[in-house]
Structure formats: structure tokens, C-alpha cells
Write a structure and sequence with these properties.
- There is one protein chain.
- The protein is α/β, with parallel strands linked by helices.
- The chain is built from ten helices and six strands, in the order αααβββααααβαβαβα.
- Strands 4-1-5-6 form a four-stranded parallel sheet.
- Helix 2 packs across helix 8 and helix 5 crosses helix 10.
Length: 261
């Protein structure tokens, strides 16, 4: 079956942890079974992420996964699309004198996620999450000896430390293909991934599925989804996400914006 999977896509498995590679190959085979023409057409097209980062989210070993966070799709900019859900490659520093950095503010989902974390930590309120209040938080965050992380790579490391597999409902972005269409094609792949996690969970604790937005919520239609505890919310590009109490309760105890270790 793997002969029907383009070699260029198989090559991208190299970035994934060894524990995931058989699962990911099976997932690609499931896509090919459902639609034999999809993967060859994808390989022949221009898609994001580039530079072999299609499976970059799977660097966390399978047995280390405690949460599966599912977003919508890669950022529609080459530098930004890293293959890891909402981790914008164009972002380095998190803070500026006025609040969040210009790059964070451009990455709307990341901006709202950070503001939700600050609300959960009691540093902002949903009603006052910008302007002077945000500048005051930034002043604290950038102070010498501050306990706050300074870079997006540190936020990703904190999420990884808590066992987050940072996935998108569709692993690719193409400007000429609606995200819902690509997401439908990738659903057999995500089913395979979830089945592998469910099999492991049968011997221990099930990871929690964190589903952000309507495209991610469509995974609820898969039978395997019922085998996991779930936390569902609107996508973080909605301003209402900042005040989402269930997300504050989930992420607040992790203190993701602080140094750990």
C-alpha cells in the first residue's frame, strides 16, 4: 500500500519520533484507501508547511502524550507554518513595551491564547485585556529576573513538558483548497492517530482531546473520539476565547507563561 504514497511525503516522516512513524505511515495509507488520488495531488502541489515539516508535531513520543490539542490548520504564511498547531514560526519574542509583541498580535490565535492564560493567572480580566493593562503585564514580564518566559520556543517547550501533541485538523494549507476539504481528506489519518493513542490508553490514562473550533469539533463524528475525555471550545481567533472559563480551568494550573525547572 505504501507504494501509492508519494516518496516525498514518506520522507517527511523523518521529523517524527520513531514511536510514531509506523502509526503515521498507517495514517497515510488510510488517506490513500479513502481517496487514492489525494496524496499524489497533494505532493504535486504547493502546500504549507514547507521544508519537510508535515509531521513536526509528532516529535513528542507516543507514550508521553497527555493532551491532544487540535486546531484548524497551518498558518497561511510560509515562515509561520511550522507543522505545530498555532506555533507561529514568525514569532520570536513574546513581549514589547506596549504589551505583546507585534508578531504575536499578528498571530491572532496565539495572541488570544496568551491573553486567556494571563486571565487564568489573574493578571488580566476578559473585559480589560489590552491597552494599559497589557502594557503593565509586559512591564512585569520584561523586568530583570522576571519569572515569565520570553520566547515562543519556551511556550512550546512548556506545552510539550505537559504532554501536549499540538495537531491541526488538516495538516496542510493550500490557498486554492478550502480548509474543510483538506480536513475531510485528513480525517482517516487523524482517526489512525487517535486509535493508536486509544490503544495505549487502554493500558493507562487516556489523554484529553482539546478541540478548538468547528473543524476540530468534526472529529466528534469519529467513533474513537468517544474513548477520550474532551475539552471543547471556540477557536482562539475568536475574542470570546479569552474569557472561556473551561479553557482557563484547563490551562490555568499549568502556568504556561512562567519558567519551569
Amino acid at each position: 500500500m505504501s507504494s501509492s504514497i508519494p516518496e516525498s511525503l514518506l520522507d517527511t516522516l523523518a521529523l517524527a519520533d520513531q514511536s510514531w512513524r509506523p502509526v503515521l505511515r498507517s495514517g497515510l495509507e488510510a488517506i490513500a484507501d479513502a481517496d487514492p488520488g489525494y496524496l499524489p495531488a497533494l505532493a504535486a502541489s504547493s502546500y504549507l508547511p514547507t521544508n519537510g515539516r508535515l509531521f513536526a508535531a509528532f516529535t513528542l513520543p507516543l507514550d508521553a502524550v497527555r493532551y491532544v490539542l487540535v486546531g484548524e490548520g497551518p498558518y497561511p504564511r510560509e515562515r509561520s507554518a511550522t507543522g505545530v498547531c498555532f506555533m507561529d514560526g514568525a514569532v520570536e519574542s513574546l513581549w514589547s513595551e506596549k504589551g505583546l509583541s507585534k508578531e504575536v498580535n499578528r498571530a491572532t490565535s496565539l495572541r488570544n491564547f496568551m491573553k486567556m492564560l494571563l486571565v487564568a493567572d489573574g493578571l488580566l480580566t476578559p473585559e480589560n485585556a489590552s491597552g494599559e493593562a497589557m502594557a503593565h503585564v509586559s512591564l512585569r514580564a520584561r523586568a530583570i529576573g522576571s519569572p515569565f518566559i520570553q520566547a515562543l520556543t519556551q511556550l512550546q517547550a512548556n506545552l510539550t513538558r505537559h504532554g501536549f501533541l499540538l495537531l491541526n485538523a488538516t495538516l496542510v494549507y493550500r490557498p486554492d483548497v478550502p480548509p474543510l476539504k483538506d480536513a475531510k481528506a485528513w480525517r482517516p489519518f487523524l482517526r489512525t492517530v487517535l486509535e493508536a493513542l486509544a490503544e495505549r490508553a487502554a493500558r493507562g490514562t487516556s489523554p484529553t482531546l482539546v478541540l478548538w473550533g468547528k473543524i476540530a469539533e468534526q472529529l466528534n463524528a469519529l467513533d474513537v473520539t468517544s474513548r477520550f475525555p474532551r475539552a471543547v471550545s471556540e477557536h482562539p481567533y475568536n475574542l470570546s476565547f479569552i474569557g472561556n472559563k473551561s479553557m482557563q480551568d484547563l490551562f490555568g494550573p499549568m502556568h504556561l507563561l512562567l519558567h519551569h525547572g
